[in-house]
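Hi R.,

Here are the chain sequences for the assembly we discussed:
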Amino acid sequence: MQATQIIHAYKQAPWRVQRQYAGAFLLFVIGASMVAALYLTVTARAAVTGREIQELRVEITALQRVNADLETQLADLTSTVVMQQRAFALGYRPVKPGELEYVAVSGFLAPEPSILLAAEDVTSPERIIPEAYTQSLIEWFDKQIKFGGAKQP
Amino acid sequence: MRRQYAFRSMTLIAGFGLVALAILVQMIRIQNSEQAAIFLSQGDQYAGEFRMFYPERGEIYDRNGHLLAGNRTVYEVGVSLSEMEDPDALAFTLGTYLGLTYEEVFKKLTESPDTWSYVVIQDYVDANIVAALQEQIKQLEAAKDFRLQGIAFKPHFQRSYPETSLASNVLGFVTRDGRGYFGIEEKYNDLLAGNPVQVWVPRDPNKATEIPRVPNGTTLVLTLNRDLQARVESILDKALIEYGAQNGAIVVMDPRNGEILAMSTTPRMDLNNYTNYFSLYNDGSQYNRSIGTAYEPGSVMKVLTMAAALDTGLVKPETTYVDTGSIQVGGFTIQNWDKEAWGEQNMVGCLQHSLNVCMAWISTQMGPTTFYGYMERFGFGHPTGVDLAGEAMGRLKTPGDSDWYNVDLGTNAFGQGVTATPLQMLMAASAIANDGKMVTPHILYSMLRDGHQYNVPSQYGGSPITAQTAHTLSEMLAQSLNAESSEALLSGYRVAGKTGTAQIPTEFGYDPSVTNASFIGWGPVDDPQFMIYVWLNAPTSSIWGSQTAAPTFSKVAEQTVILLNIPPDNVRFQLTSK
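And here is the predicted structure of the full complex:
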């Protein structure tokens, strides 16, 4: 009987309990709102990025077309017939064998066309850039330790 | 009272709860029903589309990086029927810009099936026309006039050949369905076209994913030298007019590696207008006569007969033969081209005077087994393996064939009764110009794909003769050209070569008034860097190869040494000695 009285004495007032419930509910609402807001933000960003990707894709395709068109236009402008006409208009004429003078230039290599220069020659095993320009200090130490400065096999 | 309220409240809660539960159950039931699956699949159809991404067709360049075949944008012009406002205005405008009649366009716009939402008015419309049309639409829309609403432009690529007809016989062409015909375009169609990729493209930007990269078709770099090709074509065209020939072919090849530097035949066509094909050619073999037409080459074949004889040791340059003007082979009498007897001749003389009788004597002395063994090793009767579509094999009859007769052993020795293409002749003779090693002709120098370059290695077709034989014969041919003051000679350069004049076989036998005039030659003799084959079909100003094909060879050789930077012999020796 005494214990019951004590419990009753400390029982929270109803308004406090209600406030606690309301607080918990609000906490849940706020939490859910934050999650929803975060989700919305992420989704919106993803949508915007997705749209940008779609637009960039269209732009890439358009640029590829422009590139191809420009290359063809350039080739039209530098075609054999056009160049010959331009050369004749500028007063040039085809050279005759006796008019040529040949000069030996040591070390001269005929220039590669730009179309080939732009590509990596996979058939060539030789490295163009010496190792000294590409290897790190650690790699250099490693090589020195392994081969003692001798030429690498 | 409170209890009464509590009961009502509980009843309401239970009622609402039941309704909510019913809704939930119904939602679950609908979402898992058969109809839901159908609706979902229908929805998926509109969520995106399967789109085919076609790679850009690979370009074709000459060895110096000049574009020979590229791509340009053209448009499909159509009308979205659901957006169409004024068919009259559309028919009039599109008809005017696209070169169509009003009635034609109007009919397409108004008489299309009801299920159609889009109708194509014209495809492959030039970009300039589309730009003008777009400008017109823009101006009208700025003035709030939407009568042209509904016009749609879909860009795509079309093959373009900036050099129009230059090297048309080598390049081939691409039709609107994207397939290559003839030459490089057909031979390497799969490489050039690349692999189309089909991708599901969602409309929802949230689901936008990176589309797998569609690599362009492989770009090809040819061994052709554009400028030399242009000169050779010009020389061939002039030669046809000057000598009154029906058609012809000229091929320039590097004998050291088989690279074809120029290849020209007639007629040539503007590749941007490939529909002309049917008005220019009767059949595919005429498209590139250098590889597609096999003919009886005549006396140029004597070079190979002599090569075989020297290689077997049957004869030496100083070996003599008394020419009586005729020889019996297989029961038939073989005579010289002038039906005269030339008396005692050494082997250089036999070549210089192009004596049929001497050559028939050589081949009969060798015997059919040895002679045809050599001819087969020189590649006759087999395709060269050149990387161009439409190559003919030619024909070498051999003992055992139903149509081979003993006389063929004699006639084949001077190029009658055997057929070969100009390129086969060049390949065979490359053994003489290249230290006994026969090269396989090729036109592809390099392939470019994904930023990597793959060079095409040279291939050899065997060594039918020794290097010693090759040097000896080259020297003999150079001497014979000098001795006869041939019109093939090129000032400042020592060249070796041989003319050929072959009567053309008809159903009634050989016609003596119509010939195939040919010349095969190379130079400089001490270090051959070019080989040239000239073939003029039925020249009328003179039937002789020495008066038609030989001077044409000289003109081509002159341009070749200039464009390949080959100094005259004396200058070259001076530069080498330094």
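The longest strand of chain A covers residues 120-121. The radius of gyration of chain A is 40 Å.

Let me know if anything looks off.

Best,
T.
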